[in-house]
Design a protein that fits this description.
0% strand; 2 helices; mainly alpha; 60% helix; elongated
């Protein structure tokens, strides 16, 4: 069972790329709140957050690529309406 992602047991879940995009927005919001803080600790955290943002952005692109691959190969998913999963098992 998935808690956040769309699946046969969670048809109202989200796509991975949508969740990651929301996380990226949250990180950006936090970054904006500390950009004027010049203390070493704040600069360190900001630098770490920028690295995390880059990794999350890469993960979003990978998730989008997977969705595109599945859509091209098997069409749009019908699992949420009771159809079989496009790959794997239910």
């Amino acid at each position: 069972m998935t808690h956040f992602l769309k699946s046969d047991t969670n048809p109202d879940g989200s796509l991975l790329e949508d969740i990651l995009s929301d996380i990226r927005k949250d990180i950006l919001t936090r970054c904006l709140k500390i950009t004027d803080d010049q203390r070493p600790e704040a600069l360190h955290v900001l630098n770490n957050n920028m690295k995390v943002l880059n990794l999350v952005s890469e993960a979003i692109e990978l998730a989008k690529d997977s969705t595109t691959t599945l859509d091209k190969a098997f069409g749009k998913s019908t699992a949420e309406s009771g159809g079989a999963p496009r790959i794997g098992v239910a």
